[in-house]
Specification:
Shape: flat
Order of helices and strands: HHHEEHH
Number of helices: 5
Mean pLDDT: 80
Radius of gyration: 25 Å
Helix content: 40-55%
Number of strands: 2
Structural class: mainly alpha
Distance between the termini: 35 Å
Strand order of the largest sheet: 1-2
Low-confidence stretches: none
Length: 166
């Protein structure tokens, strides 16, 4: 690649590669697969700018999860996809409880759908504004008026006889 090339790495695509159904919520897959064997870089590349929590977060989460699962079971109405815009709400139900969680899950599902609508309207508004503003500023047009397609500044344009260039 030529010097100055910007390379963008897609962590979601990398994390999804190598699993039969990467977008399904299957925590059991980690019983037979280690993070070292998987396409898994949860805290970024250390040489680049690793997350400051890299050392303590995994240990803390293991302890917290172990304690939760000793006493609670989890139930959720969330659709499990890579990006969970609804924050992945989950009911924590005591193991000894015989209570049915269907009513609460239905309410959770309805609230999630209402939030989906408001989020969609907000994204439509902000996305429309972003496109309008980009067109107004003509950023690409202005950049390529002074740079070639490789990003190098153009030499000063020679003036045409009779009064400049158009």
């Amino acid at each position: 690649m030529p010097a100055g090339t910007v390379l963008c790495f897609s962590y979601p695509d990398f994390h999804s590669a190598g699993f039969p159904d990467p977008h399904s919520f299957e925590p059991d897959r980690w019983e037979t697969l280690s993070a070292r064997e998987a396409n898994h870089i949860p805290f970024g590349v250390t040489a680049n700018r690793a997350c400051p929590a890299k050392g303590i977060a995994p240990l803390t989460m293991r302890v917290v999860l172990r304690e939760f699962l000793k006493h609670l079971r989890l139930a959720s109405s969330a659709t499990h996809v890579r990006s969970i815009p609804n924050r992945g709400p989950c009911l924590l139900i005591p193991l000894e409880s015989r209570e049915r969680s269907g009513g609460r899950l239905a309410a959770q599902w309805a609230l999630d759908r209402a939030e989906d609508v408001s989020r969609s309207v907000t994204q439509l508004f902000l996305g429309t504004y972003m496109v309008w503003d980009a067109r107004r500023q003509r950023l690409t047009e202005n950049y390529f008026a002074t740079h070639d397609t490789q990003g190098r500044p153009l030499a000063a344009l020679p003036t045409q006889a009779g009064g400049g260039h158009e």
